[in-house]
Amino acid sequence: MREGRRVWRGERGVVAAGARLYEAAQGAVGDHGRAVEAVRAALKPIHDAAVARELDAIPVARLQDVTEGRLRLGYVEKNGFGTVGRVLDAGPYRLRQIPGVGQRTADQMLAAARRLAEAVHDVVAVHIDVDRPTPDTTALVTALHVLVEAGPDARRAVDRATALAERLGPLLADAKPAAGRLGMLLAGREKRDRALAAVDGLRTLTDEAVDAGLPGLFAQASVDLLRGPSADDGGVAAWVDFELRSAEYYSLLAEISGRLPDAAAAEGFLPEGIAERVRDQRLDDTHRRVSLRGYQAFGARFALAQRKVILGDEMGLGKTIQAIAVLAHLAAQGRSHFLVVCPASVLVNWTREIEARSALRVLVLHGPDRNDAFADWKGRGGVGVTTYEALRGFPAPAGGEVGLIVVDEAHAVKNPQAKRSQAVALWAERCERALFMTGTPMENRVAEFRNLVRMLDTGVADTLGGPGGQGTPVGSVAFRKAVAPVYLRRNQDDVLTELPSLQRTDEWEEPSASDEEAYREAVSAGNFMAMRRAGYLRPEKSAKLERLREIVREAGESGQKTVVFSYFRDVLSMVRDELAADPALGDRVPVFGPLDGGVPAARRQGIVDDFAAVPGPAVLLAQIQAAGVGLNMQAASVVILCEPQIKPTIEHQAVARAHRMGQVRPVRVHRLLTTGGVDERLVAMLEKKDRLFDAYARRSAVAEADPDAVDVSDTELARLIVEEEQARLGVAEATGQGAG
């Protein structure tokens, strides 16, 4: 009998331990639920106000669309109910007081208005104005701050707590008789057997949970989720953190509110068969320290499921984070060696991001010690980060050694004749997986995109036709379907509903007499590059420089930071000198740069960091080829393009440095142009290129032309423009210099 009591006490102990574990798990889940509900409660008045503003902007005539023209609304508008919002506010009684509006019309009108209101409610996104905080937005940012600060560890703890509680609950119910001696004595044989089996299950679960450290994990999650703001803080810490990592706040907000992007758009409009396979791909987050948005998780799964792919997401959607998610997953699956190949300008950024967003070991395989670092990486593993140039000096793996090669700004290897392209192609062939990343995979010709695809999948590349375009799928829809097995692209407008507005302004200036003279000399000399920067060659009388100063002054008065892009170093030097000499700016607006190709890669990100660290207005000067790729400039909310570029993608990349995930302010882009010359021709050409790019690189069905006819070469284009300008101005024939 004593032995039986010892068994019961042992069983009671197991049940008690299981109950404590269940309580801790439920506590973590409950604390997370309360934090989420706090966000929902803070969001509601802000969202309701946004919906009301939207409905007040919809004319009442739109109710005709909902009712297929059955309503007569003339009397309604004449009586002051000119918007859908006013109709809803009026209600049935006031509407029936309008002459000509009876019960039936009022009911139909309100039903139609409610349908519109429901649609608006589902699509309106909340934008948090960091420069004009209100009590409501402060409450929302503070509530979100709790969850963001708790971080991915708390979320993982809650997920595990949820799963564990679901298993513990039924076992505790079945094991209840074993909690006391009397319960077991009174229970029938079947109940006793079920209770003993449940005790065994509880023992196994509690032992596994203790071994995995789950009780401590749940306790820490509860502490983090219950940690509120300081009583005298007033939300300041939350606002500061929001500005630093707004992408995480908006990601949580989208998830909690359920206002996620259109599923098809988030999945890049892939064919259903491929999309389903990607959805089924598991994604391990053990070594990852950042939460993913839904479209980012899909992108990482796409790379894993399809093995060798091009991620062509538009600039600013977090391609780096998606790559890190793939690396972390593969590391959790036991893979040890990975390689990232990128331009030298973003090498530092890659190492920072991997260290901050994952638990993976990072080694820089660049510089004078790169061979020693390569040997260390080969022996011990980790993520090696190197440049295109350095890669050529490393021996390619024999096959199967490297779990993944990531190639950033992959359009840099579109030319199969280039040595860097051949080195990347060899590594991609020898690695089990390859992830090419570029927001601009088809800068000018689909043939260039085909070259990238051929490094990953010769079968898909063959469906895109040969060098002459034979067999190329005709039309953008057919083209996108053909490349779907290796290519995924999403656009900002489709998946970042919270992104602040982007306002583009073409600043057309009448050239001064001095500008005209400099331009005419450049045309006469046949110097295309001099034609492009003629508006700056005589700075003392430059119409463009005068407008640039005005824009920088306006931004400075508003406390905004400005980034100035130009293709030409000498133009940036002139801009720097002019801003430094401007008495309206003086020391009040510091100028950083120029950031150009001559600045060492390790220093480029440092210059951007220094620019961002200035508490007030500042100006960053950047050569568009050197800084338009890879560097994040969300601190700037004003962008100035000193001249139009030959390729639209160069401009898009530059603007996307500022207008990207994490930007909290509306971005204004000013492109400086002069009338009557090369700028007009380049703008018209850029618009045509943009339309063709949209048709093939984005989801579209508008272009049905041969995709190989996208463009003529830049050199040929320059020659044509020079000849046409010489004819227009009636100057001597070109010598051809500088046209390339």
From TrEMBL:
<dbReference type="Pfam" id="PF00176">
    <property type="entry name" value="SNF2-rel_dom"/>
</dbReference>
<protein>
    <submittedName>
        <fullName>Uncharacterized protein</fullName>
    </submittedName>
</protein>
<feature type="domain" description="Helicase ATP-binding">
    <location>
        <begin position="300"/>
        <end position="459"/>
    </location>
</feature>
<dbReference type="InterPro" id="IPR038718">
    <property type="entry name" value="SNF2-like_sf"/>
</dbReference>
<dbReference type="InterPro" id="IPR014001">
    <property type="entry name" value="Helicase_ATP-bd"/>
</dbReference>
<keyword id="KW-0378">Hydrolase</keyword>
<dbReference type="InterPro" id="IPR027417">
    <property type="entry name" value="P-loop_NTPase"/>
</dbReference>
<dbReference type="InterPro" id="IPR049730">
    <property type="entry name" value="SNF2/RAD54-like_C"/>
</dbReference>
<dbReference type="Pfam" id="PF00271">
    <property type="entry name" value="Helicase_C"/>
</dbReference>
<dbReference type="InterPro" id="IPR001650">
    <property type="entry name" value="Helicase_C-like"/>
</dbReference>
<feature type="domain" description="Helicase C-terminal">
    <location>
        <begin position="547"/>
        <end position="708"/>
    </location>
</feature>
<dbReference type="InterPro" id="IPR000330">
    <property type="entry name" value="SNF2_N"/>
</dbReference>
<dbReference type="GO" id="GO:0005524">
    <property type="term" value="F:ATP binding"/>
</dbReference>
<dbReference type="GO" id="GO:0016787">
    <property type="term" value="F:hydrolase activity"/>
</dbReference>
